[in-house]
């Protein structure tokens, strides 16, 4: 009974319905395609089959006596690797989809086909208890030291679905006084869990991406990875806009991006100056000044960096004058 009851709150694909009513998505010109496990498996089987026939054809042409053996072995390995990586690939695809389309605000009222089905079947205390047990179990698992940030995001989605379903049941007016009080108490607990897990996901995922950005070699990769960390923070801020820790994290990531851009242009300027291209070096130092004067940079850092770059520019201008008027 517990599992069947919980299904009324958590349908097979709850993310599809919850994001269909996200107000932010209506302002976007296009929406990304939602990840599909069936589509992933279809592509995996097609790739394995294609590899089998390709290798089989090549073995036949080379005169192999048993062409199906190496072809079957290779395609089986590809299929096994694809199946074992399915969970990781789909989880990353869902995370990327959420960053592109946003996370719904739990405080907004939304109606989906799943909530209509639950209201038609009725709302009982057993359904309520089963849903709460499912959320609490997933919440405890996500809070374990070995859990990944994506586990917190999954719990936040369970909480969102629970709140949407209970809001719909409360609006129906078919609940008794004691049952309504119990639902409201459950909603308060679930709202607290939703906030905890969504903020934990945003902080943890953005921290992982920021560390990854610091380890990247190319400037473009550093900036692109850091922007993915910013997307995590912005997704949570759309729901909890008053969280000071999220704003502090956003500022820190913005400072990191600005520092990467400044360091990039300073390095290019130093290379140009070393080669004797003083005018080009001056232009590149000025590009560094542009990024250094962004609002996210701390005033003391901006002042120290500006003084150093302006000193380098003055020296290069002096060398240019000396080159024009040699004594």
Task: Pick out its properties.
13 helices; 327 residues; mainly alpha; single chain; Serine Threonine Protein Phosphatase 5, Tetratricopeptide repeat; disordered N terminus
Any overview of this molecule?
The structure is a single chain. The protein is mainly alpha-helical. Among the domains are: 23-101, no CATH class; 205-324, Alpha Horseshoe (Serine Threonine Protein Phosphatase 5, Tetratricopeptide repeat), CATH 1.25.40. Helix content is 78%, strand content 0%. The protein has 13 helices and no strands. The chain is flat. 27% of the residues are buried. Mean pLDDT is 78; it is low at 1-31 and 104-122.
User: What's the rounded overall pLDDT mean?
Assistant: 78
Task: Tell me the structural class.
Answer: mainly alpha
Give the strand tally. 0
CATH architecture of the domain at 205-324: Alpha Horseshoe
CATH class of the domain at 205-324: Mainly Alpha
Characterize the main sheet: none
**Low-pLDDT windows of residues:** 1-31, 104-122
| Gap between N and C termini | 96 Å
How helix-rich are the residues, as a percent range? over 70%
The tally of helices reads 13
Write down the overall geometry. flat
CATH topology-level fold name of the domain at 205-324: Serine Threonine Protein Phosphatase 5, Tetratricopeptide repeat
List SSEs in N-to-C order. HHHHHHHHHHHHH
In what range is the share of β-strand residues? under 5%
Rg, rounded, reads 28 Å
Structure, briefly:
This protein is mainly α and 327 residues long. It is built from 13 helices and no strands. Helix 3 (37-62) runs antiparallel to helix 4, helix 6 (113-121) packs across helix 8 and helix 7 packs antiparallel against helix 8.
């Amino acid at each position: 009974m517990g599992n069947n009851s919980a299904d009324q709150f958590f349908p097979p694909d709850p993310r599809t319905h919850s994001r269909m009513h996200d107000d932010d998505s209506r302002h976007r010109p296009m929406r990304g395609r939602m990840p599909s496990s069936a589509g992933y498996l279809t592509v995996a089987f097609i790739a394995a089959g294609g590899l089998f026939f390709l290798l089989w054809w090549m073995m036949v042409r080379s005169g192999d006596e048993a062409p199906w053996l190496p072809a079957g072995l290779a395609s089986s390995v590809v299929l096994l690797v694809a199946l074992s990586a399915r969970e990781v690939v789909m989880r990353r695809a869902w995370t990327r989809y959420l960053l592109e389309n946003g996370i719904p605000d739990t405080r907004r009222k939304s109606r989906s086909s799943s909530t209509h089905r639950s209201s038609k079947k009725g709302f009982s205390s057993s359904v309520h208890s089963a849903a709460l047990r499912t959320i609490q179990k997933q919440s405890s698992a996500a809070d374990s030291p070995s859990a990944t940030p994506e586990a917190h995001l999954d719990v936040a989605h369970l909480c969102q679905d629970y709140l949407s379903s209970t809001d719909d049941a409360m609006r129906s007016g078919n609940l008794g006084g004691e049952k309504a009080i119990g639902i409201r108490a459950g909603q308060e607990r679930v709202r607290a869990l939703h906030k905890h897990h969504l903020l934990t996901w945003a902080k943890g995922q953005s921290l992982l991406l920021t560390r990854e950005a610091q380890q990247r070699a190319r400037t473009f990769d550093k900036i692109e990875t850091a922007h993915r960390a910013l997307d995590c923070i912005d997704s949570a801020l759309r729901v909890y806009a008053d969280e000071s820790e999220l704003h502090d994290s956003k500022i820190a990531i913005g400072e990191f991006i600005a520092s990467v851009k400044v360091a990039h242009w300073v390095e290019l300027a130093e290379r140009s100056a070393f080669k004797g291209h003083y005018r080009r070096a001056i232009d590149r130092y000025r590009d560094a000044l542009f990024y250094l004067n962004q609002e996210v940079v701390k005033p003391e850092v901006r002042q120290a960096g500006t003084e150093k770059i302006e000193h380098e520019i003055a020296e290069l201008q002096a060398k240019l004058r000396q080159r024009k008027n040699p004594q």
